[in-house]
């Protein structure tokens, strides 16, 4: 059974850094786009960054220049390096992946990890 397991969240002071990881496992034939979303209390979930299988990336304007998405296809893992963190980055961060199982592609979500940035 396919699973996305996240790690790396926590509490950090403003200006600090964190690195999130999300590993996909279980019956995977291939992994297409991988992405990170976040949802702050009282707000809608928003796309933070995404990365295609070939490596092309997208970063939301709010994080451009501070966050970097990357992936290791040999490990089916996506990373989000977050620097110069601000209190407004506080949210639950969830990874997303389009995963091929045999001949079909399905969307999968991680369980979410809390990132709290204090001032």
Describe the structure.
The chain has 119 residues and is mostly beta strands. It contains no helices and 11 strands. It has strands spanning 3-7, 10-13, 18-25, 30-39, 46-51, 57-59, 67-72, 77-82, 91-101, 104-109, 113-118. The mean pLDDT is 97.
Backbone shape: elongated
What is the overall pLDDT average? 97
Structural class: mainly beta
* Distance between the amino and carboxyl termini: 41 Å
* Binned strand content: over 45%
Q: Please, how many helices?
A: 0
Helix content: under 10%
Number of strands: 11
Low-confidence stretches are none
Q: Measured on Cα atoms, how large is the radius of gyration?
A: 14 Å
The multimeric state of the shown protein is single chain
Largest sheet: 7 strands, mixed
Q: What is the ordering of alpha helices and beta strands?
A: EEEEEEEEEEE
Walk me through the topology.
Elements: E1 3-7, E2 10-13, E3 18-25, E4 30-39, E5 46-51, E6 57-59, E7 67-72, E8 77-82, E9 91-101, E10 104-109, E11 113-118
Parallel strand pairs: 2-11
Antiparallel strand pairs: 1-3, 3-8, 4-5, 4-9, 5-6, 7-8, 9-10, 9-11
